[in-house]
Amino acid sequence: MRSIRIVVAFILLLALALTVQAVVTLNIYVEDTEGSRMSDAAIYVGESYIGVTNSDGWLSYTHPGAENYNLRVSKTGYESRTLTIQKAETSRTVVLSRNSMVLTVLVYDENVAPLRSAIVRVVGPSLEKTEQTGSNGKAIFTLSDGQAYQVFITALDYRDAETSVQLSGTSREISVVMERGDRFAFRITDEETGSPVQGAEIMVDGVLRGTTRDDGIFSYNLRKGYEYLISVKKPEYEDYSMRQYITGDQQVLSISLSKAYYTPFISVFDPAKKIVDGADVYLNGMLLRKTDNYGRASLDRLTAGTYLLEIRKAGFEPYSQEITISEESIDFIANLAYSSVLVRVLVQDESYSVISGASISVDGVYKGTTDASGILSMTLTPGSEYTLTASRDGYHEGVVNHGVPTDGQQDSVTITLKPQFNLFLVGGVILAVLILGGGIYLFKKRGRKGTSRTRFKDW
């Protein structure tokens, strides 16, 4: 009986010993290719998840130790690894390599066109790579995933640019627009008022580069550290020209322009090219001068530009013209036209009695007939002599040569008509008189014969 107990105890101890020997603990250490321990690496045995590494990059796994098994380790940004662990193995270090991702850097100029030959430098943990952009403005890098990188870009005549990028599981493409480092501004102002000058022409070394905006600014790409001939032109201002050395830190060149003043002369003539004195000269609606005895008027201290010139003088049509005053054009000629004058034509006979219905022609052109008062009114232009003709039945045609005065006042002309003699009527009257006279003569003659016979008989 006792021997049986001893055998059973021995069997139990043997089973317990076998059980203790079957329990194995595997210490798992995860590192990167640089030898640094990695936390939060996921550990799988077969298809079963058993946990993640701690801050020291360590995880322990206890198993029966009955057979070999597969261990898989993964972490974002790294290539997963699967390896076979021996059943009695108690420690294993797993090294993970980072995934490779493509970073494409697109570099554009200020016009958002691809910028060629820009230098692109990518800096990351224990990494630095440099590429140059091609004609498409691209620089391409193969980098480890899961890392943050700084991107530095340099290009001739452009300001340095810098940006950062985080790679996380996918390839990336970033774009950078470069700002001109040689950007330079011209600021043009009025010397008297300090206000901006719009439309001023900017020339650099004799070449027109552009004009200022409404704020008086013109921007241009100008390399620093050089001397240039800077010229500024604006019609109503004095020309500016000076050599300027542009320093490396200079961004703006301020230039004040002085007003350019001119004294234009106005010469006024009539249609016969004779001078017109005493004419009122207006500029932009304001009376400035009267023409002198030589038909001239000076307009003092005018800036270059366009003005409305008006001239008024009795007897002449109003004159109006836009004139442009500049250094090349400061003398102007105004040719005035006469104003039409009202002319009253009176037609009368030799006894000063008015003749109505008389036809009036001027230089052979019919103008109308006189009214009941013997008058016809018309307008004629001064400065010329006209032939006025009046005609009426029963009268000889009347002709007057008349020059219309240039004083602008109303004018009058009198034409006197002489009556006409009708030959047929006169002949008829004479014939009637002769017949009448002959009748009287015959009557008287017969009377004398009768008297003589009576006297003879009686005798």
Describe it for me?
There is one protein chain. The protein is built from 2 helices and 37 strands. The chain has 459 residues and is mainly β. The chain folds into 5 domains: 2-96, Sandwich (Immunoglobulin-like); 100-177, Immunoglobulin-like (Sandwich); 186-257, Carboxypeptidase-like, regulatory domain (Immunoglobulin-like, Sandwich); 262-335, Carboxypeptidase-like, regulatory domain (Immunoglobulin-like, Sandwich), CATH 2.60.40; 341-417, Carboxypeptidase-like, regulatory domain (Immunoglobulin-like, Sandwich), CATH 2.60.40. A 4-stranded antiparallel beta sheet has the order 3-2-5-6, with no helix packed on it. It has a 4-stranded antiparallel beta sheet with strand order 10-9-12-13, with no helix packed on it. Strands 17-16-19-20 form a 4-stranded antiparallel beta sheet, with no helix packed on it. It starts with a helix and ends with a helix. Residues 451-459 have low confidence and may be disordered. Keywords: Membrane, Transmembrane, Transmembrane helix.
- Overall pLDDT confidence: 87
Low-confidence stretches: 451-459
Do you know the CATH architecture of the largest domain?
Sandwich
General shape: rod-shaped
Hey, roughly how much beta strand do the residues contain? Answer: over 45%
User: What is the number of helices?
Assistant: 2
CATH superfamily of the largest domain: Carboxypeptidase-like, regulatory domain
- List how many beta strands DSSP finds: 37
What is the CATH third-level topology name of the largest domain?
Answer: Immunoglobulin-like
| Count of all domains | 5
- Fraction in helix: 10-25%
> C-alpha Rg, in Å?
61 Å
Terminal Cα separation, in Å? 253 Å
Organism: Methanocalculus taiwanensis
Protein name: Carboxypeptidase regulatory-like domain-containing protein
Keywords: Membrane, Transmembrane, Transmembrane helix
Pfam families: CarboxypepD_reg, PEGA
